[in-house]
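Exercise (ungraded).
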Amino acid sequence: MKKTFAILMVLSILYACGGQQTVATDAVTASASDPNTNPTYDPQRGEGKFTKVEVGATIDEKLVQAGTKVFAVKCSACHKLTGEKLVGPGWKGVTERFKPEWIMNFVTNTDAMLNKDPKAQAQLEICLVRMPNQNVTDDDARNIYEFMRKNDSKK
Amino acid sequence: MKNLHFKHWLFISVAFVFTLASCKPKNANNTISADAAAKVYVAPGKYDEFYNFVSGGFSGQMSAYGLPSGRLLRVIPVFSVDPEKGYGFSEETKPMLNTSHGFVPWDDLHHVQLSKTNGDYDGKWVFGNANNTPRVARIDLKTFRTAEIIELPNSAGNHSSPFLTENTEYVVAGTRFSVPPDDVNGDVPINTYKKNFKGTLSFISVKKEDGKMELAFQIQCPGFNFDLSRAGKGVSHGWFFFSCYNTEQANTLLEVNASQKDKDFILAVNWKKAEEYLKAGKGKKKSVRYAHNTYNEKTHTATSEIKTEVIVLDSKELADLCYFIPCPKSPHGCDVSPTGEYIVGSGKLAAVIPVFGFDKMLKTIQAKDFIGTFEGIPVLKYESVLYGEVKKPGLGPLHTEFDNKGNAYTSFFVSSEIVKWNIKDLKVLDRASTYYSVGHLTVAGGDTKNPNGKYLVAYNKITKDRYLPTGPELSQSAQLFDISGDKMQLILDFPTIGEPHYAQIAPAELIKNNSTKFYKLDDNKHKYASIGEGATKVVREGKNVHVYMTAIRSHFSPDNIEGIRMGDDVYFHVTNLEQDWDVPHGFGIKGAANAELLIMPGETQTLKWTPDRVGMVPIYCTDFCSALHQEMQGYVRVSPVGSNVPLSYSLGTNMPKVEGDEKGEEKEKGKKK
C-alpha cells in the first residue's frame, strides 16, 4: 500500500514538472530498417519512384542521344564504359546485372538506397566513395538507362 | 524492512522538495531565471525560429545567427575579402570590391536592413552599408551572397544607411561627413566648412522583381553630419527622417565644438515631392565617378562598371522638399513607430527622449509655424511638432525599436540598460541592465509595421569579463532578452564577429524554404566552365594559360599538367561537377600569392596563379569531400622560360615510362639544367 502510494507520489512529481517536453527523436536513420527482414523492400526494384519501366524491344536512339549528354556532364568523371572501376564501377554489363527500375531508382534516390540496398552497400564497400546525388531528372534517368543498354549491346 | 521504508520516504520527500524548488521560477529580480536555458535550447538537428542578420562592423561582413540559440550560421562576406569563401580572391569576385578608388579589401559594415513589402519583411534581400568608402550592398537571401554593390558619389562615410521605404522603393544613404561635392575643387582650406562643404543624401531605387539598384537621385543639403535615418510608414509613408548632428558646422574637435547647441535637427524629407521635382526636370546632372558592381548568378562572375553621372536636387532651391525638426541634443537614432505616427529622436547628450507626432509635423508645416530657416530650409517649432517627452529615461539614449503591444525599447549607452516605455503615455515600464554599455538593439520585426515582439537583442560595446579571456581583444557580446512578458528577461549571451551595429530579426519561415541548394550545371554560363570532364583542357594564349578544370569526389581533371613556363599567368577555372547540397570542393596551389578557392556544386571559380620558380607544384582539394579527399590532388610542372616541354594535361593516363624507354626522360632532364 505504502509502496503504491510512493509510486503515485513519484509519478505526480514527474507529471508536475512535465511541462518541459523531452526532445523528440523523430529522425529515424534510414539504415535502421534492414531490407532483409523488411518484406516490403524489393531488392530487385530498389527504393524510389520507379515501379515499372517499359523498355522497348529495340534501342531508342533518341533516348541514347540524350543519355550521352547526361553521361558526359554527370557520370563520366567516375564511371568508365568498360568493366573497369574508376571511382565507381565500370558500366559494362550493368543492365544485365540490374533491372531498369533498380538503376533508375539508384541514380535518382541515391542516398536512400546507399543506406539500405544490399547491393548498393556492397558496392560502397569496394569503392568507398558514396555515389553523389547528381540530381538527375526522371527523364534523364531513363535516358541514361537507354545509354547503358546501348553500351551493353556493343560487343 | 521498516528501515528501508523510512529511507524510501526520506528520498521521496527530498526529491519532492527539490522538484518543487526547481519547478518554480527564481525571484524575477535575479538576472537569470531558471527557465532561461529551456527558452534558448534548440535541440540538435532542430532549427531556430528566427534568423538574426547582424552587421559585422569593422570586419566589413554581415553574419547570420539563429535565434533563440544564438548559434552562428554564416558569415556573409560583403565589404571585405573573406579567405574562407574565396570572396575577393577569386577572379570572379574581385570586381565586387572595386570602387572609384580601385580595389578596397576591407571596409566597415554598420547597418542591416531587410527588404520590405507593405512595411513587413519579405525575405528577399538584406542590405548593408559601407561606412568608410561609401557604398550600399544587396545580399540575396536565396544564396546568402552579395549580389550587388553600389558606390555613392558626393559622400564620405555612409552612416545613415541603408534604411529603406516600406515597399523597398528606395534605400537611402546619408553622408556622415559633409565634403565639397565631387564636381568642384575640394582643394580648399578645411576651415571653410560652412562655405564649401555639403551634406548629400542618396536615394537608391530597387527594382521589385530582381532587386537591381540604381542611384535614382541625390539631395544636396547643408554641411552637417548625417547620422541615422528611418523611412515613414503607414500614415507617414512618403517621408524620410534623418538625424543630424554638428549643426554647429565644426571642422575640428567635434567632441566639444559639435556639442554646443542645445538642439540639433531631424531632417524630414518628402521623397514623393522629390519624385515630382525629378519628373519636372528640376534635378541637375552632375559629373561624378562611382562604381556599380553586380554578381551574375548564371556566369558566376561579377562585373564592375564605373558610372559618371548623377541627378542632384538642391534642398535650398526646392520648396516643400525638406524641413528641420529641432531635436535635443546630438541626435543619434531617429526611429518611426509601427503605425508611422511617431518619430522618436534619441539625443546622445539629451536628458529626455522627444517623441514627435507626424500629424503635428504636417500641421506645423501647413501653419508655417517656423522659427526660421537654415540654408533655405524651414525650421519647425519644436513645441508644435512634439507629441511629448519621455522624462528621465536614462543616460545616453541611442536607438529605439518597437514591439506588438505599443511599447518602445531604447538602448542607453552611458547607463548601460534597455528601457521599455509606452508610446502613447510615454511612461517608463521596465529597465534591464546590459553587460556592458549597449549600443544598438533590435526587436524581432522591430522596425516593421507588425513587430513580432518575442525577442530583443542588445549589442554591447564592451565585453570585459563576460567570456573566458582571450587576450586584449574580446568578441563583442550580444544579449538576448525575452520581451514577451511585462518584464524583460535576459536569457542568453553570445559572441559576435567584428562589432555589431544594427541587426534585424526575421522569422525563419520567410527565408529558409527559398534557399538555393546548388547551382545547376545546365544553367552555368561561365565563360570558362567545363560542363563535364570531357570538356576539360589546357589552352595557351601567349603568356596566359587557361586551365579548364573539373572537381568531383574525389579527383580533379586534369590532375597532371606540364608545359607551364616561368612568366606565364595561369588561370585555374575550376568547375565543381557535383549536383547535390553541401558538397563544395576547394582548390589550393602551393605558393599562390592569392589564396585559394572554394567552389559550390555546379559553380565555376577562377584562381590566378603566377609561378615564381621552376619545379613541381602540388594542387589539392582544401575542403574535405569524401573518404578519398586526401587523394584529391595533382601536380603542375613549371619549366624555365623558353623550355620546349610541350603543354600537356591528363587524368589517369600519365603513367611511368616502360623500361627501355627512359632515354627521352633523361634527355629532357639534361635540358632543364
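Further reading is listed at the end of the chapter. For now, observe: Chain A is about 50% helix and 0% strand. The helical segments of chain A are 2-16, 61-75, 94-97, 100-108, 110-116, 118-127, 138-153.
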